[in-house]
């Protein structure tokens, strides 16, 4: 099984929007999560000034998921953008591909990857811990939806 990432270009967003929406609707079934993801995709794709990018996650040439990152500050922090797949057992492999990309593209300026988890999705804490993240008491000042996100997970080497 080969997992690869294919970058989605902002200039292609209007052409990709319906494909992206269909994909995220297959992966995230909770309405509140889906609304947040679509809002983030639109903000990224339509503003043209968001940091980072999104990638399609592909398995043996088939699109099976979505992942991405953003850069909230210049301290080496990177935020994980809506990481999910529709094929069980591929999430960690895709995360490893994203981490390799970040290490290669940003070298020493990449220090850690941060995932925020909403209240009501506590089962994700154990999943991200199994992928090498730790639960942190640290608050994330760059997140505008502080009442939506409750948990901060951090991956660092």
Instruction: Give me the CATH architecture, please.
Output: 3-Layer(aba) Sandwich
User: What distance lies between the first and last C-alpha atoms, to the nearest angstrom?
Assistant: 26 Å
CATH topology: Aminopeptidase
- Count of the domains: 1
- How would a textbook summarize the main sheet? 8 strands, mixed
Mean pLDDT: 93
Helix content: 25-40%
Question: How many helical stretches?
Answer: 4
Tally of strands? 8
The helix/strand class is: alpha+beta
Describe the protein's architecture and organization:
The protein is of the alpha+beta class and 157 residues long. It has one domain: Aminopeptidase (3-Layer(aba) Sandwich). 36% of the residues lie in helices and 29% in strands. It is built from four helices and eight strands, in the order E-H-H-E-E-E-E-H-E-H-E-E. A hairpin with a 2-residue loop joins strand 2 (53-59) and strand 3. Helix 1 (13-27) packs antiparallel against helix 2. The two termini are 26 Å apart.
């Amino acid at each position: 099984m080969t997992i690869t990432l294919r970058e989605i270009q902002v200039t292609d967003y209007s052409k990709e929007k319906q494909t992206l929406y269909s994909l995220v609707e297959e992966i995230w079934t909770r309405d509140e999560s889906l609304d947040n993801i679509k809002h983030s995709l639109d903000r990224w794709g339509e503003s043209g000034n968001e940091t980072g990018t999104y990638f399609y996650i592909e398995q043996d040439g088939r699109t099976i998921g979505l992942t991405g990152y953003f850069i909230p500050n210049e301290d080496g922090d990177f935020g994980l953008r809506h990481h999910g797949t529709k094929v069980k057992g591929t999430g960690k492999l895709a995360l490893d591909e994203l981490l390799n990309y970040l290490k290669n593209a940003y070298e020493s300026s990449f220090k850690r990857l941060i995932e925020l988890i909403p209240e009501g999705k506590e089962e994700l804490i154990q999943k991200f811990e199994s992928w090498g993240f730790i639960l942190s008491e640290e608050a994330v000042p760059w997140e505008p939806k502080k009442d939506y996100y409750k948990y901060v997970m951090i991956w660092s080497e």
